[in-house]
Amino acid sequence: MAETSPARRRPAGELEASVLAALWAAEGPLSPAAVQSALGGRLARTTVTTILTRLHDKGAVSRSRAGRGYAYSPLQDSAGLTARRMRNELDKQHDRGTALARFVSQLTIEDAELLRKLLGGAGDGVRGRPQPGAGDDAS
What is the per-residue burial (b if ≥16 Cβ within 10 Å, else e) of 32-50? Predict the structure, then answer.
């Protein structure tokens, strides 16, 4: 019996990223059918609904009743979602110091300088919410 090549799989997180991009581009909450349409109809509506449900369970989107189903909205922008993911990964580590040290050692010179600037000038923005303009290059 001849072996068949395995089905080509998408990279992990690609579908969630596509769905989030559609929600970020929208001017308001979207139903799964509207998300499917925004993605060009290349995914089944049931697949879109599953992805939206998983994003809701992860706290990345909110949902509200819309007729018999739900309409979904992103809870954070792309940068906020990235920050939350980074924090979640850090929270999994027993040795936070080593994890942070390895992260910092892999930063580009530009990113390391930006981090120094943010840590040195953000004040309470480091522990809480970023202060307005933190990280902006425009002065």
Answer: bebbbebbeeebeeeebbe
Q: How far is CA 127 from CA 76, 108, 118, 122, in A?
A: 18, 23, 11, 9
pTM of the model: 0.66
User: Three-state DSSP class for 60?
Assistant: coil
In sequence order, which residues have a C-beta less than 8 Å from that of residue 16 and are 6 or more positions away?
51, 54, 55, 60
Instruction: Give the C-alpha separation, 40 to 126, whole Å.
Output: 40
- Cβ contact 106:114 at 8 Å: no
User: Tens of pLDDT along 76-108?
Assistant: 998 988 888 899 899 999 999 999 999 999 999
Q: Tens of pLDDT along 4-27? A: 445 566 666 889 999 999 999 999
| Lookup: tokens for 34 | 């509207």
Distance between CA atoms of residues 34 and 52, nearest Å: 12
Q: Where are the beta strands (DSSP E) in the chain?
A: 61-66, 69-74
CA-to-CA separations, 130 to 44, 46, 75, 119, in angstroms, rounded: 39, 38, 17, 10
